[in-house]
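Dear H.,

Thanks for agreeing to be a second pair of eyes. The structure we're designing against is below in token form, covering all 407 positions.
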């Protein structure tokens, strides 16, 4: 992890002048917003009084309140947009190049959905596909009143697979109980994909790209009933992953796949062999899947385990890792927009905690490159240092000591 004093020096040397200029712009916008809010309150009070005094004009009063509210929102966004855009182009871009001069920042771009799914991480989080054979009239599909059993008219991918057969009854009950209704459609894939703040470049000789991303799947459910007794439908989106997603080009030839996931209720299926690393603190918080357990143990060295646990405990963010087909994928969950300007009502000069938070995420990724020797090219025999290095034996006591020392 980066040292706080190094961030302090960077802040004072490279950012303070730009932040002072941005602070002047912020204060000018705040003054206009305060005037706008004052006018909004006066107009709203006047319209409310008119609503009760002139009963025949109640419609005009309501329309006036709606238009005034829309106007306030419009001008608030219009005045704040240049400030937020300038913060990204002048401050965030400089923070990115502080990590490495070769990195380039594109606020509007994102990692593609294809690149995310190539990691195979979503395979562990997505619930199986559900598609009822006949839907109801609300959706212009033919209604089927003859079937009442959930097992008679459902097609769920994977239930015939041995790994899913034992969970069939549990998923049937879960579907029936959810919102007191049935899930009638789920694609089993990512249905909505958004993101921003894309960065790409080189860390040493390792190509890297990352951005904020948000992956969601959709469920359509039926439940009983509306006022006339007809079945109704509900569409909801559920998050699969939200946070920073990194992709590194490996310089080593790694066979098979290795997946590291935090232990939580998002894991819906097991693919590959569960690998026990023998470190109770790590095994208590993470689970490792791989089709090459020997390789997985070589990749997950004691020092790498220490870095993952330290980062997870210091920032409280879940970390997931995937190595597959010459790529290393790293996901760090976060529900906040990491590269957005602080609130327009908060001074940029009071502290630089937001700068520290941005850098912590990127430095963890940089440490990962160094830890796995990703900058080391392949040897002539087609195998790199990753395969040739056997991790040292480390007891749980020593691992705990290393983590505490790092904190």
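And this is the sequence the design step returned. I haven't edited it by hand at all.
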């Amino acid at each position: 992890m980066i040292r706080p004093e190094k961030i302090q020096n960077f802040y004072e040397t490279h950012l303070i002048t730009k932040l002072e200029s941005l602070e002047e712009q912020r204060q000018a916008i705040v003054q206009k917003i305060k005037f706008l809010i004052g006018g909004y309150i006066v107009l709203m009070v006047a319209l409310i009084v008119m609503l009760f005094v002139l009963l025949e004009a109640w419609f005009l009063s309501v329309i006036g309140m709606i238009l005034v509210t829309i106007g306030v929102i419009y001008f608030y966004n219009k005045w704040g947009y240049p400030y937020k855009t300038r913060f990204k182009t002048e401050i965030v871009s400089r923070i990115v190049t502080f990590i490495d001069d070769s990195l380039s920042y594109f606020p509007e771009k994102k990692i593609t959905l294809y690149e995310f799914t190539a990691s195979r991480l979503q395979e562990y989080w997505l619930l199986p596909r559900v598609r009822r054979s006949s839907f109801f009239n609300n959706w212009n599909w033919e209604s089927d009143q003859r079937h009442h059993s959930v097992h008679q008219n459902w097609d769920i991918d994977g239930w015939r697979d041995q790994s899913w057969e034992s969970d069939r009854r549990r998923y049937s009950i879960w579907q029936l109980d959810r919102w007191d209704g049935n899930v009638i459609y789920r694609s089993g894939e990512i249905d909505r994909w958004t993101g921003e703040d894309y960065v790409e470049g080189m860390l040493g000789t390792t190509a890297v790209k990352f951005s904020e991303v948000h992956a969601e799947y959709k469920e359509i459910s039926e439940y009983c009933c509306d006022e006339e007794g007809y079945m109704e439908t509900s569409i909801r989106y559920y998050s699969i992953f939200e946070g920073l997603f990194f992709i590194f080009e490996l310089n080593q030839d790694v066979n098979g796949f290795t997946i590291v996931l935090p232990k939580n209720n998002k894991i819906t299926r097991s693919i590959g062999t569960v690998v026990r690393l023998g470190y109770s603190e790590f095994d208590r918080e993470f689970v490792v899947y791989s089709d090459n357990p020997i390789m997985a143990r070589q990749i997950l060295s004691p020092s790498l385990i220490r870095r993952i646990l330290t980062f997870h405990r210091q920032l409280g963010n879940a970390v997931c890792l995937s190595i597959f087909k010459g790529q290393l994928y790293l996901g760090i969950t976060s529900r906040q927009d990491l590269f957005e300007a602080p609130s327009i009502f908060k001074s940029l000069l009071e502290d630089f905690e937001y700068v520290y938070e941005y850098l912590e995420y990127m430095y963890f990724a940089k440490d990962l490159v160094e830890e796995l020797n990703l900058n080391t090219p392949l040897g002539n025999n087609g195998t790199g240092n990753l395969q040739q290095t056997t991790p040292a034996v480390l007891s749980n006591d020593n691992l705990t000591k290393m983590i505490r020392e790092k904190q």
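Two observations from my side: The chain has three domains: 1-99, 102-126+196-215+241-340+377-407, 127-186. The two ends are 10 Å apart (CA to CA).

Warmly,
E.
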